[in-house]
Amino acid sequence: MNDWLKPDWPAPENVHAVCTTRSGGVSVAPFDSLNLGDHVGDTPIAVARNRQLVAEVLDLPNTPFWLQQVHGVKVAQQNVDNLGCSADASVSFKMNEVCVVMTADCLPVLFCNRAGTRVAAAHAGWRGLCDGVLEKTVGALDCDPAEILAWMGPAIGPKAFEVGDEVRAAFMEYEQQAAQAFQATQAGKWLADIYQLGRQRLSAMGVTAIYGGELCTYTQQDLFFSFRRDQQTGRMASLVWLS
Q1: Where are the domains of the chain?
Q2: Which of 74, 122, 194, 198 could form a disulfide with 89 if both were Cys (CB 3.0 to 4.6 A apart)?
């Protein structure tokens, strides 16, 4: 579809990556129109058709490895874990295996290595990000972090993501530099920059080739679903695979 996103990163030619938007599907409000989440109250028939449309438009080589995301840190591996397993990231070292995560404010991060032999997708809400889902994903790629490229897809932007003291404290407990990603708004409230927090975590692991991180799901209503904005809404998908 015309407004779907392709990462602006220097990935090898055999690495394919796309992030869908809310347009191009068959779901009706409030899931209009390309809702890919089967857990949000949309009709199963619409979700199945939307997933089929994604597969057709992208000419996917295989069924995406859909996960049951739980805001945790488990990284699933295809041919080891089952489709639909509880995890918040997946990794693949083989051709034609499609890693995918769904989001609607949380941070999706796609990964590949410079050699074009490994890919991964991670779903990082604030809790998973704080608990180390990106570190676990980098570890599961099992290669030199300096050889990894990471692209941060659309998430809630730094001017819209208000959190409480407990969220800031959780990140600060891990690393004091996290304070740079929080701006005070009122007593006990902070604006959090989930993109900056993601960059900090990846950089600390030795991943320096980090791209993306300029969009806002909350304010760009025509393009993106946002749970915080609408509560009942759909999910976008961020996909990556090797050919």
Answers
A1: 15-157+198-242
A2: 122
Q: Name the pTM for this structure.
A: 0.97
Instruction: Look up residue 215 and give its amino acid.
Output: L
Count of other CB atoms within 10 angstroms of residue 65? 26
CATH, domain range 15-157+198-242 = 3.60.140.10
Report the relative pairing of strands 148-152 and 209-212 from DSSP bridges. Answer: parallel
Per-residue pLDDT tens over the stretch 219-232: 999 999 999 999 99
Beta strands in 43-192 (DSSP E): 75-77, 89-92, 99-103, 107-113, 119-124, 148-152, 162-164, 182-186, 189-192
**H helix or E strand, kind and range, residue 204:** helix 194-204
Q: DSSP H helical segments within 38-132, as ranges?
A: 44-58, 126-131
- What pLDDT digit, counting tens, does each position of 150-169 carry? 999 999 999 999 999 999 99
